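Query structure, 137 tokens:
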């Protein structure tokens, strides 16, 4: 399975039905260092599917306080190609590290290291450390 982060029209059920032939299930997440801007869509088929000619598009800021909310979908390789086919030329697919993935990774790192370093962490509560790290995102 592939992971696809959508912050725009691919979250709409009617677009999903038209593009993938099914409703996708996903997990809410956010992309750090970006804000939303807008792009005018000229492709009539994309406008028909989404019902709008102005779509959101990411704008990189590099600012860790900026974030874009969206959904991570688990899709097949074929569906990933269908998503690429749906998007117009202004959009490109890039790999990204998402907020939830970083939180999960930090949690797993502490969970895995704690037994090995519990003597060093004897006076620290690992649950408080995890809550602190989770609340930093």
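Result returned for the query:
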């Amino acid at each position: 399975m592939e992971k696809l982060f959508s912050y725009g029209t691919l979250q709409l059920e009617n677009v999903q039905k038209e593009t993938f032939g099914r409703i996708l299930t996903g997990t809410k997440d956010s992309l750090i260092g970006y804000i939303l801007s807008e792009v005018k869509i000229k492709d009539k088929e994309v406008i028909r599917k989404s019902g709008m000619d102005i779509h959101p598009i990411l704008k990189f800021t590099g600012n860790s306080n900026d974030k874009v909310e969206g959904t991570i979908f688990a899709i097949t390789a074929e569906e990933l190609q269908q998503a690429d086919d749906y998007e117009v030329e202004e959009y490109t697919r890039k790999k990204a590290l998402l907020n939830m993935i970083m939180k999960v990774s930090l949690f797993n790192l502490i969970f895995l290291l704690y037994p090995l370093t519990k003597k060093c962490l004897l006076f620290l509560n690992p649950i408080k450390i995890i809550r602190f790290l989770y609340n930093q995102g």
